[in-house]
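lol ok so funny story. i was supposed to be doing the assay writeup but got distracted and ended up predicting the structure for this chain instead. priorities right. anyway since i did it might as well share w the group, maybe its usefull for someone
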Amino acid sequence: MERFEWGTAYFDPNHPLVWDLNFLEVEAVDAQVTADDLVAVADRIQGAVGLGHRRIVVDDDTVAESLAPRFRELDWMVNKFLFMELKRAAERPPRVRRAREIDRDNHRDVYVRTTSEAPYGGVPDVVRQLADHTDGIAARTGVRYFGAIDDDGTLASICVMFSDGEIAQIEDVATLKDYRGRGLATELLGLAISEAKEAAHDLIFLVADEEDWPKDLYGKLGFEPMGLSYDFVLPGDVVYGNENH
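and the output, tada:
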């Protein structure tokens, strides 16, 4: 960790391509701070250790919203993450015929495959380091892996549930491209939710992209918004979409 003018910078030299492990957290700013000021700090601190990307997390939603237009002008990605808490029963309880608990090795295999299909999955080191990151979290907290198997026998959809006994987070929901639209993720989530409720967690939550469609699926399954988180990213050293930034 390294302190800077408005917060703390975090680094993981063993996983430099994982944005969630290498970022600046802006904890407090004065009224005069600008996106350009934060970019300059990120360039100074993250550039000094050779990081190709830049990532800035702003704790205050109001401040983040005010900074977002300028970050967009600078061609940074503006991400809005919606935290959603399980508050009610699903509109239509999903079947769980094809969903089951799986082991870590089977989960990692499909995780690597689904991540390789993502826009940032063109760099093998990125995929490996992201998989290692999930394993690292699992090593420090309770974890269960769930998967859904298509009718042709392929394990095609996965998620993980992290738990400290009181709070459960459902994470890394992903389905292989060729198997999307078959209801596998819905069944998978139905099982994960059922297991989390059976374990009597005080809070069951997940995080969704506020501007993407999965949040609507989560809403149908009983999740409701409870907060937003922003980050600003310049991808830098990964292939994202059809461009190498």
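The chain has two domains: 2-81+230-244, 86-228. Helices lie at 35-48, 61-73, 104-116, 124-140, 184-198, 214-220.
back to the writeup now i swear
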